[in-house]
Design brief:
Chain lengths: ~375, ~400
């Protein structure tokens, strides 16, 4: 409060004089300052003129939104019908048709949670409980089996809810593991440190796809006879292992930014290791690394698309399944653009938020 | 002194002190860690051995010498289905390196271009670059690969109606075909001359630097070394008969003959990886340029350096120190992301290894191989990084 007031006064004192410029002047200074820039502007305008109007014509004017596949083949424009006719399969996969309200509700809960978390005034201890409750309710909505909700086996889960759950649950489960790994890497005990370094560097050195292969073909071999674990859980485990290594590196960065004085002060108060970390060091370190953590969430969200390769029906796989239907074959650009739009909206809002947060926390 | 006092004061304290001694505690914790990891490892290992025996899966790397009996679509060395698994895997490694090598070069070029465009004083250019960076960063690379792959197959016409944007270049749903000079012994000499030219330019640079340090005289290194690097191969070409016959692709049957063919798989993989990674490189380049304060340029000007010298001697060495470390990690990312080739059917290492796993059933060896190969790439990169950081580290008093 105090700080922002001070900043206001400062920024008022430093405010530049207001200069009114005409549109013509603006164009001259921003687009045609110098010969080189003028040529560049003209070339770009020609390029845009060649590209944008045909695209708009294809995507909006000649396009069909709710038609049959045959009508699409006769037309020239984009066939958004491939999305609108199959929207429920693309969004929810093989989830029982009449129960689609459940994953939908789960996604709405998730969005509400994210919107609630956005506000920094809500960053209290209760937020942790709200998230825990939210995640449990989401899992329950997806799985069912209690209170009269029909049971839906997890191999029927699919589409966007699966993408979101893999990334969010992965992130939530990977975070504590990442913190432990980061602390281990900075430990004074050589064995603990070595183990953590080997784990982190090993995981960061290999592509996620090799871990997913591992989850698909090796995990079953690791388990005793008779015990099988669902494919989704195995993929989730691989994503958690992968994300934890990256979180560990981010958290280590935060730990390194805490000055020695903080450690010494905590020790001089007589706190033991756990108390020192829990009460003094981690709260400060984790606050520093919030923006890069959002970055990891974004890449985890994007990386879950890789589970396509081990044939889990997340949103990319359901889209591809739709496209392999002979009726809709050949309309892949439209379908992929739709999925890309979903990813873009999610990632862009997250990265925008992280940038804003960085500015706010920095000042 | 005080310690021994306490230690003597009673049995209880002695025991207590034994457990509270940081050294002993740390040893205890470490033994505990090793024990836990050992137990977990033993548990997994014994399960695995049992499972392998039950499913009668062979172990070991004996399959390396066995006949692979699967074809590989494209290969840098001659390969047929009769060759061994070992050779097939090697072909895969070479394909991965090919994608990584070409991809990295093109990504750095496109990324640098975009990074500079982002900082352009031209509003239109900088906005366009910003949109490009934002959009391509936020779409998963796998989706981009699928998109470009489908672009090749669903959007581009068949070879009969192939697009010809430039004479000798044909784009169709069979990939990209372009004309190349027909093989001639002269090109071998040209390549040799090019290598000699590069070596000569490097020696010249060293000599010029030494001479400048000794006498203060400046030698026009850039112009002369460019002349050597371009001129020497050109002269070789001229003197060895100036062969200029081109192998021009021609339509025969359903596909093109002649020229060099870039398959849709390779094209889509390269396009997706470059477009995705270039946006990250652009951000790195932008940050690197912005990290150099304007004062540096002004100071260099006031010392009397020319524009080229300012860039070469003042700006670049400082900007590169900021740019290179994240840039190498992006290059490594590109190499790791090239493993997504398996999804669109380009035979990179992961794709060959997964075929091997399917055929031999030896999943443990296969996945281990994948991990080891990529770890080698990362280790080589980080070794380079350490060497570079040492070389470039600020010399402080």
């Amino acid at each position: 409060m105090d700080k922002s007031g001070k900043n206001n006064i400062q920024s008022e004192g430093l405010k530049a004089p207001v200069v009114r410029i005409s549109a013509f002047q603006w164009i001259k200074t921003n687009l045609f300052n110098g010969v080189f820039n003028s040529i560049l502007t003209i070339l770009t305008l020609i390029f845009l003129y060649k590209v944008v109007p045909p695209f708009v014509k294809w995507a909006f004017i000649d396009s069909l939104w709710f038609s049959t596949a045959q009508a699409c083949r006769d037309g020239d424009g984009a066939c958004w019908s491939v999305v609108s006719s199959n929207i429920r399969f693309i969004m929810f996969g093989f989830y029982p048709h009449e129960l689609h309200w459940r994953p939908l509700l789960a996604m709405i809960i998730m969005v509400c949670l994210l919107v609630y978390t956005k506000n920094r005034n809500h960053w209290k201890k209760s937020l942790v409980y709200i998230w825990a409750a939210g995640l449990v309710i989401m899992g329950f909505l997806m799985k069912g089996g209690l209170f009269g909700l029909a049971n839906v086996e997890s191999d029927q889960w699919g589409g966007l809810p699966l993408t979101i759950m893999l990334s969010v649950f992965g992130m939530v489960a990977a975070y504590p593991l990442g913190i432990i790994l980061a602390l281990g890497r900075r430990s004074k005990m050589p064995t603990v440190r070595t183990v953590c370094i080997i784990y982190i560097e090993l995981i960061r050195g290999v592509p996620l796809i090799s871990l997913l292969f591992m989850s698909a073909v090796l995990f079953p071999l690791f388990l005793p006879e008779g015990i099988t674990i669902n494919k989704i859980i195995r993929a989730q485990a691989a994503i958690i292992m992968f994300t934890a290594a990256y979180i560990a590196e981010v958290v280590r960065g935060g730990l390194q930014a805490i000055t020695r004085g903080q450690y010494e002060a905590a020790e001089s108060l007589g706190l033991n290791y756990v108390q020192k970390m829990r009460l003094i060091i981690l709260p400060q370190a984790l606050k520093i690394v919030i923006p890069p953590t959002v970055g990891i969430l974004i890449s985890a969200f994007k990386d879950t698309s890789l589970v396509v390769i081990i044939a889990l029906y997340e949103i990319l796989k359901t889209t591809r399944t739709t496209l392999s239907d002979p009726a809709w074959m050949g309309f892949s650009p439209e379908a992929y653009i739709f999925v890309a739009l979903i990813y873009f909206v999610c990632c862009y809002s997250m990265s925008n938020y992280s940038r804003r947060l960085e500015r706010e926390l920095h000042s | 002194m005080q310690k021994s006092d306490i230690a003597n004061s009673g049995d209880y304290e002695q025991k207590n002190q034994f457990l509270n001694d940081p050294k002993i505690r740390s040893i205890l914790y470490q033994i505990l860690t090793i024990l836990m990891i050992g137990l977990l490892g033993y548990y997994l290992f014994s399960n695995t051995v049992q499972n392998l025996r039950r499913q009668s899966i062979a172990t070991g790397f004996d399959f390396f010498d066995k006949e692979a009996s699967f074809e590989i679509g494209e290969s840098l060395i001659s390969y047929s289905a009769a060759d061994s698994y070992g050779k097939a895997l090697f072909v895969g490694v070479l394909n991965t390196l090919k994608v990584a090598f070409i991809g990295i070069i093109l990504t750095v070029i496109l990324g640098t271009f975009l990074g500079i465009a982002r900082l352009s004083s031209n509003w239109l250019i900088s906005r366009l670059a910003a949109v490009y960076i934002e959009v391509t960063q936020d779409i998963p690379v796998l989706l981009q690969l699928f998109f470009w792959y489908s672009f090749f197959y669903d959007v581009l016409p068949s070879p009969r109606e192939a697009l010809e944007p430039v004479t000798g270049v044909f784009i169709s749903n069979r990939g990209l075909v372009f004309a190349v000079p027909e093989p001639h012994p002269a090109y071998k000499y040209v390549a040799a001359a090019f290598i000699i030219g590069c070596a000569a330019a490097w020696l010249l640079r060293r000599w010029a630097k030494k001479r400048q340090e000794r006498t203060g005289q400046i030698f026009p290194v850039f112009i002369s070394s460019t002349a050597i690097i371009i001129g020497l191969p050109f002269l070789t070409w001229l003197f060895s008969g100036a062969p200029h016959k081109m192998s021009i692709p021609e339509l025969s049957g359903f596909n093109f003959q002649g020229g060099i063919n870039v398959s849709p798989e390779f094209g889509a993989l390269l396009l997706g990886l470059i477009i995705y990674t270039a946006s990250f490189v652009a951000e790195i380049v932008r940050a690197g340029i912005q990290a150099i304060s304007r004062g540096q340029t002004e100071a260099a000007m006031s010392v009397g350096l020319r524009r080229g010298q300012i860039l070469n001697l003042v700006i670049l060495p400082q900007a590169l120190r900021v740019i290179i470390p994240p840039l190498t990690s992006q290059m490594l990312n590109l190499t790791k992301n090239s493993s997504l080739a398996v999804a669109i059917g380009f035979p990179d290492f992961v794709s060959v290894a997964s075929t091997t796993i399917n055929q031999t059933g030896q999943a443990i060896e296969g996945v281990t191989l994948i991990m080891v190969v990529y770890l080698c790439f990362s280790l080589l990169t980080s070794m380079f990084m350490n060497w570079y950081n040492k070389k470039m580290a600020l010399v402080e008093r």
